Request: fold
Amino acid sequence: MRGGDPEALLTSAQAGDRRAIARLISFVERGGDAASAVSRLTWSAARKASLIGLTGAPGAGKSTLTNALVRLVRDKGERVGVLAIDPSSPFTNGAILGDRVRMQDHATDEGVFIRSMATRGHIGGLALATPEAARVLAAVGYPLVLIETVGVGQVEVEIAGAADTTVVVVNPGWGDAVQANKAGLLEVADVFVINKADRPGVAEVRRDLEAMLDMHVAPGPWRPPIVETVAARGEGAAEVWDAISAHRAHLVESGELERRQAKRATAEVREIIVRTIEAKAVAALHAPDGEALCDQVTAGEIDPHAAAESILKNLDA
Amino acid sequence: MRGGDPEALLTSAQAGDRRAIARLISFVERGGDAASAVSRLTWSAARKASLIGLTGAPGAGKSTLTNALVRLVRDKGERVGVLAIDPSSPFTNGAILGDRVRMQDHATDEGVFIRSMATRGHIGGLALATPEAARVLAAVGYPLVLIETVGVGQVEVEIAGAADTTVVVVNPGWGDAVQANKAGLLEVADVFVINKADRPGVAEVRRDLEAMLDMHVAPGPWRPPIVETVAARGEGAAEVWDAISAHRAHLVESGELERRQAKRATAEVREIIVRTIEAKAVAALHAPDGEALCDQVTAGEIDPHAAAESILKNLDA
Reply:
């Protein structure tokens, strides 16, 4: 297999070889047979890894908060992995780094493994690659994984929302940003963080969040708490961690953790099925018959649904 | 068919019945057989509708610019449709309006039809529903359609990027927003607009954009122009329209318009195939056999790939 044998790489990775870890994650990003092989090796042992999602608008301070949480977790002596989902493009063929560079703080600490995930074409691929990458980290000694995504696109929000506990980071002034994906963020939030809480407008955003929670969250044992931070100075990070821990305790006690894990497993099976068939469909589309049908569609002789039906009929046959 | 017969609705819509237009677009949003029926009716006549995409970060002023462009187009006596892709959620079951309300300016003008598209579950559905809705508008007398999307999620950017001409709206200060999806936006941009150009930092953002264009855009007949606007006062809207018109002339002369239309047709066939199979896969997943396999995955007895393989084998059979 190109890039090495997954099983041998996993053994090296478990022995602490960081390049082997990076390669396994690259397999997972690339998709296809190598990704399946890696995923199969890690499922049984790592399927119950602790996943914490962090999401929020660009510039909300997610990376800074992630950085503060990593420091905190390391001070407790626990090992931690970070997956950062970067907006990226087949055009530039790479992720855009930014303040993520600050995470170089942890570059020499072998108890931390940080990785930016690139989309390589279609963001949809990340819905599968991200949990697979998290399991690689869990299988090689990072059982706690922070997953940071930009929280505007729905796919990106869903990726963070597929964690055990999802932290949504907002800022003072959020009240004005009517265009932001408030409803989507509210839906996935287990914990709210008002970051940059040294700026004016904290009371307003808190009131706004409480009102949304009153309106949309059914009374029950867990109401998302709202924690204030100034992540750039590390202020409030311990309180965020306490909220995450309290949420985890709630998940365990209520049986919700198992339900979330079962839901994730089903979602993953579904995603694999769809990707597999999609690959088959794309191949059919670019075969001579498929191209001829598409030409007819372009010419207006048949409509896209008629062409799709013909191609699907051939797929089944 | 629930909600009326698509063919009869189309006849009413073509006679100017706005409720019939709204219903046809609801069909398209909902997906399934009704959506296919509508799409089939409009393909041949409306497949060459003029589509203009507008995208950019939340708060960049896309709706305000759209509003200014609509006014301009109406002053020329042309009819225009607007599709606004709103972040939405199954949780709130509706789109979040905002400054879009301003578009009520045109509420009594029958030469304008404005519609917010809701995602109803999965953003992926919009990749299909948006061009179908645009063709509904084109088929009922709005041959020019503006498609406005929030430009942070990759899917959202792709929807705007699937237009004939895509306008990317940025603001002074964009240089700081390293986290924004610059590469993705750059890739789809045919025209750049620096909106809120009465604020400081215009020269910097222009320099930044020019440098990106120098680096990433191959020398050729079309280099995306950069237009400055203060859309809230209508300033620069005419220049944006001139740039869009110049791009259209370039598309026609170079043959690129036909290439883009052919590419869109193929993408649409692909999208229909994938959605169709996805529905089949979801049904298989929730059948008793599928659920039993997912339970085994959750329990760690088999891995997600093995479960997917079994289900796929049953789908083929």
About this structure: Residues 54 and 167 of chain A are 5 Å apart (CA to CA). Residues 272-316 of chain A form one domain.
